[in-house]
């Protein structure tokens, strides 16, 4: 077989690694994950196949919960991550930070002592329950009772008093227990409201337990040194603008861009973003500025549109758009067209910062809208070629069912989840 002929490989052994199922069992990785995160075993399999030399530098422009960066650290590869979500940036940076356990233990003792001093002051509950932090968000008022929100705000305030990496560590610990108490439960690409009993008195004990568990995980993690932190960093950066980084410094890119399935993570994690201090307006801007994988995202600014001069709509995408029913939601058509324009910008931008010969692994899933299959993996191969890459291989790692709504109308039609492997020319 000629070297330029791409290979399609079926890897059902990696199917479970395409979900967060295995991630939940791994120290540090399990501190916080996204519903559609892949597990570290998938990154490890990709790196094993690449056999990169020591010192190779990796990039993940959709860093999510930091899985790629943490595996890179575990293997000794410097790595940089980027994301538009402040939540993703915080979580990922916290996972790769160097920590001194005695400082974490002292900080936890300090938090517990301060909490004991203030938890019985009932007037404080009333004060925080009417604070602007809570009153300005209808979602927070619906997600928590006044007493629960009072506890959360008070704990958040004490955590912020710690400052630096200690503040970030315990803030991730606090956000990690939010699903145990919030009445906004993640459900696919949205959240649904559920009934829960009042549990204000359980929030602090659950935080202490989760923070203690996180500290225990550090016994299994490479600690590194404070001066080494710059080898693993995450920036608040648009994946379509990677050219803002230094050119030609990365030897590999492993990432999973959002799938064009209408899932909006600014809504799935809206409660966590609000508790981080993001305003409703900031979250709306994040939603509008994200890659167009959901219908509310907006086209990028004119200078990015100008970068599309070398882009042509792939024939498979044109077929998909033509097959959509005439009465389909026009926003879906616009989303699909915009998603692949954005992915062209991502790959063109990545090409500028990758060394010649650098490999790229894109974990992607095909989607269906109105019963019409959109082969995301094959379309991205075409777009990759337009952006200066050649296609090395595609690993088909699992078949996913369509959504409940699509299944009810069109029957169960599985879609591929694929690792598309490219190489910069």
Automatic annotation (TrEMBL):
Signal peptide: none annotated. Pfam families: N6_N4_Mtase. Gene3D superfamilies: Vaccinia Virus protein VP39. GO terms for molecular function: DNA binding; N-methyltransferase activity; site-specific DNA-methyltransferase (cytosine-N4-specific) activity. GO terms for biological process: DNA restriction-modification system; methylation. Keywords: DNA-binding, Methyltransferase, Restriction system, S-adenosyl-L-methionine, Transferase. This is site-specific DNA-methyltransferase (cytosine-N(4)-specific). Its EC number is 2.1.1.113. Belongs to the N(4)/N(6)-methyltransferase family. N(4) subfamily. It catalyses: a 2'-deoxycytidine in DNA + S-adenosyl-L-methionine = an N(4)-methyl-2'-deoxycytidine in DNA + S-adenosyl-L-homocysteine + H(+). PROSITE patterns: N4_MTASE. It is an enzyme of class 2 (transferase). Residues 34-86 form the DNA methylase N-4/N-6 domain. It comes from Desulfofundulus kuznetsovii (strain DSM 6115 / VKM B-1805 / 17).
